[in-house]
Amino acid sequence: MHAGSLIGLLFLALQLVSIGYARFIPERFFCWAPYDQHTHYRIDVVLVDGTMTAIDVRRRYRYASEAWEPRNIANVFSIIRQYESTYGKSDNARVTVIYSTNGRAEATWQWPER
Questions:
Q1: How many CB atoms lie within 10 A of CB 32?
Q2: Which among 2, 72, 94, 99 has most CB atoms closer than 10 A?
Q3: How far is residue 50's CA from residue 23's CA, in Å, rounded to a whole number?
Q4: Quick check: 85 pLDDT over 70?
């Protein structure tokens, strides 16, 4: 087998492994259809000095405080988790995300995670 063919087969095999792996994690960044879930959500943030406005939430996470998420809702949780465990660690924020995926009943996710 030629080196070029071997490299090509290895490349394809790595892609297949990545796609297979992505099917079993919530973020699903490498799936062929990452936009297979549609979630309406609202992020509420409470700090010691009160509740943040929608504009404050957008500035904090660089993400809308209330919107439609075409990807898995785990992406929103990941953004919040990353910010609150690094930059916002000393703020002791209490974050609540109320969401509904694909028209199902509303669910709630909270930070800090319990």
A1: 9
A2: 72
A3: 39
A4: yes
Number of H helices, E strands in the chain: 3, 5
The H-or-E segment that residue 57 falls in is: helix 54-61
Token duo for residue 79: 């953004």
- Residue 73, CB-side half-sphere exposure with 13 Å CA sphere: 20
pTM equals: 0.73
Give 83's contacts (C-beta < 8 A, 6+ positions apart). Answer: 60, 61
CA pair distance 68, 36, nearest whole angstrom: 13
Res 28 pLDDT > 90: no
Bridge partners (DSSP) of residue 40 are 68, 100
For residues 6 and 50, what is the distance between their CA atoms, to the nearest angstrom? 60
